[in-house]
Amino acid sequence: MSNKTAAAEPEKTHTEQQEKPQGAPRKKRILSGIQSTGVPHIGNYLGAMRHWVAEQDMYDNIFCVVDLHAITVPQHQNPKELHANTRNMVAMLLAIGLDPEKAPVFVQSHISAHAELAWMLGCVSSLGWLNRMHQFKSKAGEDRENATAGLYTYPVLMAADILLYDTNLVPVGDDQRQHIELTRDIVLRFNEHFGKTFVLPEALIREHGARIMSLTDPERKMSKSEPDGAISMLDTPTQIKKKYARAVTDSQTSIVFDLERKGLYNLLSIYQSFTDKSAAEIEEHFAGKGYKELKSELTDLTVAVFEPFQRKYNEYIGDKATLEHLIAAAADKVRPRADATLKRAQKAMGLG
Ligand code: AQP
After folding, report:
1. Is position 289 annotated as part of the catalytic site?
2. What does the pLDDT look like over 3-42, one tens digit per residue?
């Protein structure tokens, strides 16, 4: 490694300087992604997606459906299903209100720079760093020998996703915290060794809803790959009602935020995320009431939020030409930025 020292917060990159309009403060750039591994659930929505929509005027936004990440597990290596899931995920992101003009939603595999930069970053990442990643451990499970190499290097690809766009902030759920830390380690090492090349990003993780747990096992994170414990954004009102009704709770009766009562705490966290009320207000609202009332209100809140999304989603799914056009336009919009960063990194490393 060279003896060049990197500033903890690197100065502006060449691309940043070029893009800042004269005299106007540049909006911070945010980038986030979601895997096309099935229908998104209330965890994805409350932990990440709703913030992307609510804050799209505040930031310079880029969103991607990360299909290259989806294939890191064999269950998602069914070509037809993956292709459809990717389109469905873009349709859902548009349906919840992302405006393609302000917030392009592209498909990760359409921009080849992601895979190219990931290889380069893999060559400056230590095995020790990857060995510490919790998500690999939980997704690989007991049968680690049979987990794919892609699952192991997943965080390096995620670093490439973020760094290609000179991202300042990465709005994600709590499960991604460690991956953003790894991205920062990669930036610091790369910049120190090859000179200032990448922007140092920060995670943007919210206080409420950043870790919604499974309804059937509140010790585990709600996940697309475990649909029984998840309320999907395409569930019907009847399914939503049934899933809340069956949600694991306990034999106590008071409705209070108690971390020891994990099932109840999770339901109250969902309620809090949907209503944006304080814990004290919620406890007061449910004083003298029980699980029946809580679950019934949760059903009503969820149905009221998801029903309009489902209508819009069906419109996008029914108009394949528009959807494909928007997907292609988003890729065209972001590609020059990704290619410029890739070139900058290649030059820094002496490639080519
Ligand atoms: N349970 C959760 N609570 C809050 N936020 C969550 N996110 C995921 N699960 C929760 C956030 O949603 C965004 C997109 O996630 P992803 O699709 O990229 O991958 P994931 O974290 O692996 O999500 P899943 O639902 O668990 O999918 P599978 O089953 O395919 O692995 C991210 O910002 C994530 O933090």
Report:
1. no
2. 333 333 444 544 444 445 466 678 999 999 999 999 999 9
48 Cβ below 6 A of ligand 1: yes
Query: Is 211 close to ligand 1, i.e. is its CB under 6 Å away?
Result: yes
Q: Exactly one of 139, 242, 262, 289 is catalytic; name it.
A: 139
Contacts 24+ apart (CB under 8 A), 236-240: 237/299, 237/303, 237/307, 240/299, 240/302, 240/303, 240/306
R_g of the chain, CA atoms, integer Å: 21
* Pocket flag, ligand 1, residue 221 (CB < 6 Å): yes
Query: Can you tell me the distance from the alpha carbon of 84 to that of 65, in angstroms, rounded to the nearest whole number?
Result: 12
Please provide the size of the chain in residues.
352
pLDDT, tens digit, 9 for 90 and up, residues 302-321: 999 999 999 999 999 999 99
Could you give the 3-state DSSP secondary structure of residue 62?
strand
Structural tokens at position 35 = 């895997």
337 touches 64 (CB < 8 A): no
Helix (H) or strand (E) holding 69: helix 67-70
Sign of CA dihedral 281, 285, 286, 287: positive
Structural domains in the chain plus CATH codes: 14-210+319-349 (3.40.50.620), 227-318 (1.10.240.10)
Q: Which of 4, 12, 27, 221 is catalytic?
A: 221
